[in-house]
């Protein structure tokens, strides 16, 4: 049945990633980390040092997808993925991960599996790395180095075979959400739109400044101006957790959870 879905959730900016849970989640009553962020990791995020005895670890397996791109399997030990706490206070043993191609962040990862599209990797050989991050986006570190893993991949520089999603009018939508951005403030606060796979969705965004609205994962982009809202209409045919954000201001608008 058509309806509006709004569930409040504090969030932060950017990515397309598949939601999931990993084993080894910490005690929910654990105290927040007392270690302040230290020097930069070289990837635009501060380092947050953890003690050796309590430090998590991460490894990564990468396999080429049969269509295009790569399927990335992130194995984290003594660490729990907590997508619902993005933007909150850092707590040891939990958070999310960031994927980098060379020194450029290309995705935020909320679970053990992530599809990296071919379009995210330029032609030639590149270093793909994964860094464990805290809820506040600082990078967990041990002995001054980010807790990370890396491997080499070779990009084609194109998007051949990638699924193409365009915003289109699908008629009356099963799920709708209306979002407003005024003076940099998002209303309602960034939350999560719950959608069942196969449902039609319409997201409408109005803003007092011009920008581009982008739904990551589905790769739908629409311009928004003070005179013309952005309307993104699509069928939810991919499962996962996808972020809707503005490109110029890098503002998180909402998360779309497709199950």
Automatic annotation (TrEMBL):
Domain of life: Bacteria
Start-end of Basic and acidic residues biased regions: 42-51
PROSITE patterns for this protein: PROKAR_LIPOPROTEIN (PS51257)
Organism name: Lipingzhangella halophila
InterPro entries: Cupredoxin
Protein name: Plastocyanin
Annotated region described as Disordered, given as residue ranges: 22-64, 146-174
Record's signal peptide: none
Coiled-coil region list: none
């Amino acid at each position: 049945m058509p309806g509006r879905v709004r569930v409040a959730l504090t969030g932060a900016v950017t990515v397309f990633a598949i939601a999931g849970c990993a084993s080894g989640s910490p005690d929910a009553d654990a105290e927040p980390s007392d270690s302040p962020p230290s020097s930069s990791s070289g990837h635009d995020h501060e380092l947050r040092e953890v003690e050796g005895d309590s430090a998590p670890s991460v490894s990564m397996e990468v396999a080429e997808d049969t269509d295009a791109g790569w399927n990335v399997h992130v194995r984290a030990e003594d660490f729990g993925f907590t997508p619902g706490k993005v933007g909150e206070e850092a707590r040891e043993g939990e958070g999310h991960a960031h994927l980098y191609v060379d020194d450029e962040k290309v995705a935020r990862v909320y679970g053990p599996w992530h599809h990296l599209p071919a379009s995210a990797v330029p032609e030639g050989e590149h270093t793909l790395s994964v860094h464990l991050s805290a809820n506040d986006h600082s990078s967990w570190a041990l002995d001054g180095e980010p807790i990370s893993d890396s491997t080499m991949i070779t990009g084609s520089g194109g998007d051949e075979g990638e699924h193409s999603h365009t915003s289109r009018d699908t008629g009356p939508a099963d799920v709708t959400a209306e979002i407003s951005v005024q003076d940099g403030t998002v209303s309602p606060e960034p939350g999560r739109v719950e959608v069942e796979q196969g449902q039609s969705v319409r997201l409408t965004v109005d803003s007092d400044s011009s920008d581009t609205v982008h739904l990551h994962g589905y790769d739908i982009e629409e311009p928004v101006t003070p005179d013309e809202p952005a309307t993104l209409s699509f069928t939810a045919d991919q499962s996962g957790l996808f972020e809707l954000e503005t490109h110029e201001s890098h503002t998180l608008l909402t998360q779309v959870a497709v199950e």
